[in-house]
Predict the structure.
Amino acid sequence: DPARTSLLSWFVDSYLTLNPVETLEFQEKVDKIKPKQQKEQVMQMVTSWMEQGIEQGEQRIALKMVQQVLLRRIGAIEPAADRRLQLLSVPQLENLLNAALDFSAPQELETWLEAEESAG
């Protein structure tokens, strides 16, 4: 049932993090699935998990780079501003990184964030 598979995929994507042993066990169980259609559905879920993990990793790296540049350019980042940074996408963080290279005051970050939020 595609609806059930989609719901299961969403649940696993949202709430399940596998360690290396669990990942191996999961792969072994997938390998035992016989009907080709069911195996393809499971592999679509796995692909979705992998893509989501890659996206989260890219976002964390971009965020860390922006935070380091901002710390160096304008000093400590206010907690409220840092929370707003964590909501930015990778392309937004890349744009901020380029802009932050020229920042010299905390207000410039606030101005950039306000402009980005009003544009979105």
